[in-house]
Amino acid sequence: MSRNQHSRKTRFAKRSLGQNFLVDDGIIHRIVDSAGDLSEKLVLEIGPGRGALTDLLVERSGQYRAIELDTILAEKLKSRFEGIEKVEIFEADVLEADLEKILAPSEGIEGAVIVANLPYNISSAVIERLAEVSEMFAEAILMLQSEVVDRLAAPPGNSSRGFLTVLTEYVFEAKRLFSVTPNCFRPRPKVQSAVASLRPIGRSRDDDFPRLRNLVSVAFRQKRKTILNNLKGFSGVHDPVPLLEAAGIDTKLRPEALTIEEWIKLAKVIGADSSAGE
Q1: 11-20, 113-122, 161-170, 247-256, range with the lowest pLDDT
Q2: Is pLDDT larger for residue 162 or for residue 16?
Q3: What is each CA distance from 234 to 78, 88, 101, 168, in whole angstroms?
Q4: Average pLDDT, stretch 147-169?
Q5: Counting CB atoms within 10 angstroms of each CB, which of 28, 141, 199, 211 has the fewest?
Q6: pLDDT above 90: residue 183
């Protein structure tokens, strides 16, 4: 049975889970090829669904694991790969699963790569979750809504830049790989898609990281306001002006204009200021 025939005979997608199943063989191969040589690596596939990518990933990987929330689909995958020692299927919610345990490679496996066709309604939350375990893998190849990919890689000054951009930039090098049209899915989504690469850059998440995360979250709540006005809503900041001046940041700038280095410096300045609390 071909992959397309398999797709037609499988159950319908669940809208509540944001399921849009990939059915284009050319795109399937491009995604897996983007992950490079997987022969000695652990591959974690998030949300394999009907398994469009899974056959190739299992074939090419040194070890394969998957996290699938949908009970029926998880059981089908377990049955499909029963008896193959290097394959493990976890029925779980990726936002709650123990990713550190799941990403821990077995003996003889060198490093991990994540591959996912993410439901668009949880893509931002998943990326934040991956940022928490970035030291556990070498790269994530993610299918996302096109505008989310634009947001991830938006440079300072770009209007698409926001909270997710800064958080991603702190942890990863983000790169848009290629676009994917709605015709490549069943059912067809109403939005354009794209595949992105996230490579951890090894930046240490020290005591300033929680402060940085909270700071950026508050600063982007009202993007049309200046960083000065937005900082007035940050807990413990009584007078933002000297803090911005100490960080070398123009008080008239909007949040999207700041570089990752400026955000990091501002978080440190706020942390060092005796009048600023968490």
Answers
A1: 11-20
A2: 162
A3: 48, 44, 35, 21
A4: 95
A5: 199
A6: yes
Q: What distance in Å separates the CA atoms of residue 166 and residue 211, rounded to the nearest whole number?
A: 13
Which are the contacts of 59, defined by CB distance < 8 A and separation ≥ 6? none
Tokens of 278: 């968490």
Q: Give the pLDDT band (50/70/90) at residue 276.
A: very low
Mean pLDDT of the chain: 89
Per-residue exposure over 87-112, b if at least 16 CB sit within 10 Å of its own CB, e if not: bbbbbbebeebebeebbebeeebeeb
* Block residue for tokens 């940085």: 212
SS3 248: coil
- Report the C-alpha gap between 146 and 190 in whole angstroms: 11
pLDDT in tens, 85-114: 999 999 999 999 999 999 999 999 999 999
C-alpha span between 17 and 68 (Å, rounded): 11
User: Does the pLDDT of residue 181 top 80, yes or no?
Assistant: yes
List the beta strands (DSSP E) in 92-147.
112-117, 139-145
Dist CA 160 CA 176 (whole Å): 14
Which token pair is 145?
């809504």
CB 38 within 8 A of CB 62: yes
Helix (H, G, I), strand (E, B) or coil at 91: strand
Cis check: omega of the bond before 182, within 30 degrees of 0: no
Tokens 């600063």 — which residue?
219
Closest CA to 65 of 14, 99, 24: 99
